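tmp note - Caffeoyl-CoA O-methyltransferase
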Amino acid sequence: MAAKAAANAITYRSVASSMPAISGGRCRSSRTWNSVRLPRNRCCSSLRNNPADVDGSNSAAVVVAKDDKYGSKQIISLTARLYDYILSNVREPEIMRQLREETAAMRGSQMQVSPDQAQLLAMLVQLIGAQRCIEVGVYTGYSSLAVALVLPESGCLVACERDSKSLEVAKRFYEKAGVAHKVIVKHGMAADILRSLILNGEAGCYDFAFIDAEKRMNHEYFELLLQLVRVDGVIVIDNVLWHGKVADPLVSDAKTESIRNFNRRIMEDERVSISMVRSLSAFIFFLFDSYATTKRKYFDVKSFFVGYFDVKKLYNA
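out:
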C-alpha cells in the first residue's frame, strides 16, 4: 500500500532498520531503484551486483525522491520493531493503559488513537495553555482522557459522541481518573452539538479541538470549529492520509474521495496555513489574527494546518 501512495513521485527501498542512515554518493545514486530488501550491514549499492542478495528480517522501508523536486531526504517508514520502540518511549499513565486494554477487546477498537498520538495531542494542549477544548468523536475516551488529564483544574473538555455504549466506557474512566469534573459529555450528532454551542454564544471560546469522527463530515466540522475555536487556538483533524488510500488512484470509494476533497479544500483555503504530518495523519491548525476587522470574527483568522506528523511551521499573513 505504501508503494502505491508514492506513485510517480517517489520510490521505496527497504533498508535494515539497524543500519545507519544511508549517505554518500553511491547510495544517493540508487534513488530511483524499485523496492528491495537489504540484509543487515549492507549498503544499498551492493545490490547492483547482487540484486538477489536480500533478507526480509528487520527491514524498514525508505522513501527516496526520484528527482530534485523532493531533495535527497530519506524517510524511514514504520515497521513493527520501530513502532515498538516508539511506544516504549511513550509516557502512558496507568489509567490510560487500563482504558486502552479494555478498549482492545471491544468492537471497533481500531478507532482508538494510539498512545503516541494521544501523547502528541496532550502536548499540543499543554503547549498552547489550553483551558477549553472540544473533541468530535470520543469512542471510549482514550484521546479525550489524555487531554483532560493535562487540562488545569479549571479546564473544560466538551466531548461529543453519538454511540451511547462506548460513551459509557469513556464516562466510567473519566470518573476513575478523577477528571469527570473537567469533561462535559454531549451525546448526539456532533454537527448539531457544535451548532448549539455557537447559538449559545460560545463562538471563539475554545482553545483546542480534535476531530476523529465521520470522515465525510470533516469539512462541516471544520467550518463549525473555525467559529468556535479562538484566534491562536489549535484544531487537529485525524486520518487525513486514510491509511495511504488518499494517494492511491485506484481507490475511489466515497469515504476516501471525501477525505481527498477535504484535503484539497484545505490546501486551497487562504484562511489557513498548512503542513501535513504523517506520524499522526492529522491536520493541526494554529489560529491567529490576519484578516481585516471588516470580516466576520470567525473568519478573522489564519490557521496553521499540520497533517500527520512531520513539519510544523507557523507564519503570519
